Amino acid sequence: MRFTGVLLLCLWSAGVSTAADLPQPTGDSIVAPNAKLELLFERTAPIKGGLTEGPAVAPDGSIYFSDIPFGSDKGMILRFDPQTKKTTVFTDDSHKSNGLKFDGKGNLYACEGSDEGGQAVVRWDVKTKTRTVIADKYMGKRFLAPNDLVLDAAGRIYFSDPRYLGTEPKEIDHKAVYRIDTNGTVVEITRECEKPNGIALSPDGKTLYLADHNNGTDRILVPPDPNEKVTPGAMKIYAFPLGADGLVNGPRKILVDFKDQAGCDGMTVDAKGHIYLTARGLKRPGVMVIDPTGKEVAFIPTGMPNQTADKPAVGIPSNVTFGLNADRNKLYITVDTQLYRIPLKVSGFVVWAKPSLAGAE
Questions:
Q1: 138 to each of 121, 171, 195, 357, how far by Cα in Å?
Q2: For position 20, which CATH number holds?
Q3: Which of 179, 240, 261, 287 has the fewest Cβ atoms within 10 Å of its own Cβ atom?
């Protein structure tokens, strides 16, 4: 999750424009030009600000996602059932969960942010709804605001730790990507980024993809402080090569540079190795699909292009995941305070990791 200047306005928007109004998707090998976004959920809870985030597919094919408000309002984790098309509340106190992922045993892992959140990576037992903190510190210092995560085949958890909201003291003086090993040890993977956000692994596990989304401030005020000068920084997608030990073993590559537009939030990959990026720029909001070299191969609009800062932004995506089984070629997208899906011509990549830590079986 990140908030970028005028994009704060999207937090009160009503949702994506009517699907018929949106430009057609591009990239016929990925998505049919007549494919449409299907609205599955729209927030009705009496919580303020924020956005939906972190969709994750469970082993039973259901989609869990976060609904993150501002301040003292409690966040939620919701569950969408593709069979019934109903959304239910998994927990009405998510500790400001953001990114979510499942392992092969059905344990749910969550990044909990700041702004009165848990500032930790946790595991939920879905059956008992028991929450266990896996890690909340690095070298004795509290994380800033864990944002997004991905599990590798061994069950190790890679996660980003930026800060976009909240007044909590910052005990760590830099933003980085970490990994929680199966013995519970926290390892710093890289700090070669300004503000790490969305994160994913290539299907072969040899490349770590990372969104650098530096919105220029670590504490967004609503309404914005007119005296605060915000200068956004890097809005890029990086590829880091990983060795057999899962650590960075070479120079990063820049795959995409969004330049003066808001960059990517969350991301995922498909079975062919394409990377799906939630592009939040007002000129062209939607899901950008690139190949491992950074070449754009498809684009799925979620909002109207060329929106302007003087009006509420609508249709700004935050994160993506693929479904399972009959939904394996359906892309689920959290947008504003909604959940959508769209049929594709490719299937998602899912690796059911071993439970990450002892006691998670």
A1: 12, 10, 17, 17
A2: 2.120.10.30
A3: 261
